[in-house]
Amino acid sequence: MSKKGKKKSGIEGIFIANEKGYGFVEINEREDDLFIPSNKVNGALDGDTVKVIIEKKKEKDRRAEGKIIKIVKREKETVIGIFQKSKNFGFVVPDDKKFATDIFISKNKCKNAKNNDKVVAKITKYPEGKKNAEGEIIEVLGNVNQAGIDMLSVIKEFDLPYEFPSFVQEEAEKISQEINLDDIQNRRDLRDDIIFTIDGEDAKDLDDAVNVYKNENGNYCLDVHIADVSYYVKEDSKIDKEAIKRGTSVYMFDRVIPMLPFELSNGICSLNAGKDRFALSCSMEIDENGSVISSDVYKSVIRVTERMTYTNVNKIINNTDEEVLNRYSKYIYNFKLMEELALILKNRRTKQGYLNLDIPESKIILDEQGKTIEVKKYETTFANEIIEQFMLTANETIAEKFYWLEAPFIYRVHEEPEYDKIQETNKFLFNVGEKIKVTRDNIYPKAFADVLEKLKGTEYEKVISTLILRTLKLAKYESENKGHFGIASKYYCHFTSPIRRYPDLFIHRVISEYIKNNYNMNEERIEELQNKADKYAVTSSETEKIATKAEREAEDIKKAEFMQDKIGEEYIGIVSSITSFGMFVELESTVEGLIRFENMGNEYFIYDENRKTLIGEKTNRVFKIGDEVKIQVIEANKELRKIAFKLVENKE
């Protein structure tokens, strides 16, 4: 009786819906998700907290199967979608295709919405059985084809706070845009040092600056200066509380939803060239092998000498542009020294097993109306690498120092991947004659790095990078140091971007307090900061997930928009993923589309899950990840965020 009663009470988890009707339930204490057939979903919607009972246990490759018996908490109260009007009522077609039903809107709850308007609908009655959800329109965003409505829809869908409350804005406007001269005596004055910011051309919130020189014994000295945001954003201030809620800045092409108000992010905290700015600095002495042999963390006042771009620094180190070389002639030695040190640091990381995953990002260019006019790979140069290596080194140095001080802290944690997942990846790597050499007790990043190195320069390089990325766990914030697998580091934190990430701002506050108190902190304050570290690590990980998802959705919309006028055009692409319903193909531009089985010709294809291949039943024609194929664009729908291709031929 007790067992039966326990079974009926159910296990709590989060429902992850599939647009085909079925779904999965994520349960904390279980490694695998629980499969929920469409007839056992019982009205649950994506993201809902549910109670579930297990009806079929796991068998070999089949997941355990369950049934939802109770909805504990609804995830969504509002839905974004397109309004469709009829004579006596209307309904909203949700943008989120995982939302199981259209939402019925009675005539008196339409709020003057017109046909094809993007709207925000509040759910007043959730779906039951075959009945649709019901709701009322609470906001009309504008016609679906109106400029900027697509990005506004994403902002509303993820409930991103795109405006600062008036009381936060008022507090920001009271902050002086000039440094407090009285505080200079408490800082190291570096305003005569040669210091550079190096960023993209369109960057506006400049929160890191660097300087490299050699000391008398021939070692490198790397100074990393980070905007002292915590000096201006006081603990528990209105701006601070708002920054905690936001957790991170969100970047969506033509707009930024910043973590901090403009007066800080683009004003007094931005390390603009020629302006006196307060910084939190980390100076490191580094030997010829790339080891940090000593370091110092301190408060400073700096004046950036030049605002450099990746493009111009790259031209300098490659001697490719006479005009740029002449303009910065007196600093050429500085940049050559940066290149030298960055190469040493990179080589050291490579030996440790740093995973240099070659997965290009997309660069999406919009016109003045916000419409996509170009999608291409985001080109990186060695100038990007210089800044990456310097920031990684500063982050590691800070994390290690404060770990040994046993300070309350937020670390950037990336745990080792699961053995079973690695074995799944090895099934595919078998096809290209490689294997990630691990045991259950010995999983090291070097084993992954060795495979990446062997396949570098081959047609499999990008595909294997993507496959390994999917094998790895997601990085997150934790108040306990557990190392960072992906960069093969025992100690790691985010210290270098306090303008746009809350964990960086929080640890700046901790570091500043330790410096101020000469590293003698009372136990009561340590406990208070530790409780905050525990809390903010969780909330920052959650806001980061939301921001990443919103940015990805925005990218999908803009890529689909770009392909809308290319229906019928043919391209060469690479098979990027094989599934049980078709294969994804990525074009040179980074646009990716799905070829379903019905668009692969007149043959039935069998999906080999172990080898991640498709095999033609009649011809034994095989498609595998990394294959080059010719496709034709047959669908591009920005509302569905979907691009579909048809196979034209297999390019040999």
A few lines on this structure:
This protein has 15 helices and 31 strands.
How would you explain this protein's 3D organization?
The structure is a single chain. With 652 residues, the chain is an alpha+beta fold. 29% of the residues lie in helices and 29% in strands. It is built from 15 helices and 31 strands. A 5-stranded antiparallel beta sheet has the order 3-2-1-4-5. The chain has a 5-stranded mixed barrel with strand order 6-7-8-10-9. A 5-stranded mixed beta sheet has the order 11-18-17-14-13. Strand 30 (628-637) and strand 31 form a beta hairpin. Helix 2 (149-157) packs antiparallel against helix 15 (523-563), helix 11 (419-429) runs antiparallel to helix 13 (461-471) and helix 14 runs antiparallel to helix 15. The longest helix has 41 residues, at 523-563. The radius of gyration is 27 Å and the shape is globular. The model is unreliable at 1-7 (pLDDT under 50).
